[in-house]
Write a structure and sequence with these properties.
alpha/beta; two-stranded antiparallel ribbon; 11 strands; globular
């Protein structure tokens, strides 16, 4: 497949826990700009597009030089918002869904997502995982876990501790990072599927793909993401930036 590789950043205004999150300024820049600036450093992407449902976010993005597009405000998830943008751009063959609240994502890790979905003909989707060593993380239902096969393809994602240790000392536990790369036809296929029973049970969209036989390739990275969902997360991000000065 030939064509462009795009990073699309869904940026929704209405967040239940931190309203107007993309526009919150940290050190003089809105959060969405922090994410955008990491995305444009990815070497394997041809373009970065911010997809939003809010005119204030759109105008802010245009002011700092981003390519941005308005989308419907009725989408249930980021994948649907990204698919709307993809429908307008037949020239895009590969797309990365980068969350608009991950300002510390590494550009090299974005490239890893692109490489896996672009170079692996068996992969419909690609994503990132990290090794978990903290017992609290392993048992935290808000931190999604992943088990993989010997070739790095995801077998399952769960909010539960997986695998269950009947015999301790054999398992490596992986946490999932919510970034995805898609082949164009894979995203289209997934967004047209009805929600699956496993997806509805765990409230994890990627289980729709797995339950329908799609292949998700993973790569292990060594950084701990700082997603901004709450005021506490925002303060943590500010402190991390201060420590880097």
């Amino acid at each position: 497949m030939t064509g462009q590789t795009a990073i699309i950043i869904p940026a929704r205004y209405g967040s239940s826990r931190l309203k107007g999150k993309p526009l919150i300024e940290v050190k003089g820049k809105p959060i969405i700009q922090w994410v955008f600036e990491k995305a444009v450093k990815a070497k394997l992407a041809d373009r970065v597009i911010i997809a939003t449902d809010n005119e204030e976010i759109l105008n802010t993005c245009l002011m700092f030089g981003a390519e941005a597009e308005m989308t419907s405000d009725t989408h249930n998830c980021g994948s649907d918002r990204i698919q709307e943008v993809m429908d307008r751009h037949p020239e895009i063959s590969y797309v990365v869904n980068l969350q608009g609240d991950e300002p510390l994502i590494k550009s090299e890790s974005i490239d890893e997502v692109i490489k896996n979905v672009r170079d692996d003909e068996n992969a419909d989707i690609s994503t990132l995982i990290r090794v978990l060593n903290d017992k609290k993380d392993i048992e935290n239902p808000n931190l999604v876990k992943c088990v993989v096969d010997n070739n790095g393809y995801a077998l399952y994602f769960s909010r539960s501790k997986i695998p269950f240790e009947r015999n301790e000392g054999h398992a490596t536990f992986y946490g999932h990072l919510g970034i995805y790369g898609y082949k164009r036809e894979a995203l289209q296929k997934m967004t047209q599927m009805p929600q699956s029973s496993l997806e509805l049970s765990e409230s994890l969209e990627q289980l729709r793909a797995l339950q329908n036989g799609m292949k998700i390739k993973t790569s292990v990275v060594d950084f701990i993401p700082v997603g901004i969902d709450t005021a506490e997360d925002l303060e943590k991000f500010r402190k991390i930036l201060e420590s880097q000065i």
